[in-house]
Amino acid sequence: MVEGFEFGIGLKPETPWNDYLETLEQQRTGINIPEGFVPATFLVADVDGEIIGRTSIRHTLNDYLARYGGHIGYGVLPQHRRRGYATEILRQSLVVARAVGVDQTLLTCDDDNISSAAVIETCGGRLDSLVDTAPGVQPRRRYWID
Predict the structure, then answer these.
(1) H/E stretch holding 141
(2) pTM to 2 decimal places
(3) Would you say 54 and 45 are in contact if contact means Cβ atoms under 8 Å apart?
(4) How confident is residue 1, by pLDDT bands cut at 50, 70 and 90?
C-alpha cells in the first residue's frame, strides 16, 4: 500500500497470481463477489511494458460507494505522477463504464486531493457535494460525469 492507496485490490502477498486473476474475472462477471463488493472491472495501465497505474470500474453502486467511493477508483504510482496518466486512465475508465451500462458516473476524492479533483474536472466532472467521512478525516468531494 502506497500513501494509503491499495494498488492490487484484495491482493495478498501469499495469493498466487493466477488465483488473483480468476478472482478479478469473477468480480467482473458478478460471480462469488465478497460481501460489500459489487461487480467491477479492474484494469492496469502500462507504458512500454511498465505498470504505471490502475483503475477499478464498479458496474453498480452499493450504499458505501454511493456516498464515498463512486463508480471509478483510479490511481497512478507515485514515480509516474504529473505526466497526464491519471487523466488518460480516467478517460479510458469512462469508456469502460459506459460499456457496462453506467450512464452517469460518480467519482469521489478527498477534499484536499487537488490533483485528483483537477483530473476529474478535466474529464467533465461536476462537483455535487462534500460529504463528511469520519471525525478528523478529510471530507470527500462527490462529482458526476454524464
Answers:
(1) strand 140-145
(2) 0.87
(3) yes
(4) very low
Q: How far apart are CA 30 and CA 23, in angstroms?
A: 10
- CB-based contact 96:74 (threshold 8 Å): no
Which of 137, 136, 83 lies closest to 113 in space, CA to CA? 137
**HEC string for 47-75:** ECCEEEEEEEEECCCCHHHHHHHECEEEE
The x, y and z cell numbers of residue 89, run together, are 486512465
Q: Tell me: the pLDDT tens digits for 120-144? A: 999 999 999 999 988 888 899 999 9
Contact 116, 80 (CB under 8 A): no
Distance CA 29, CA 111 (A): 33
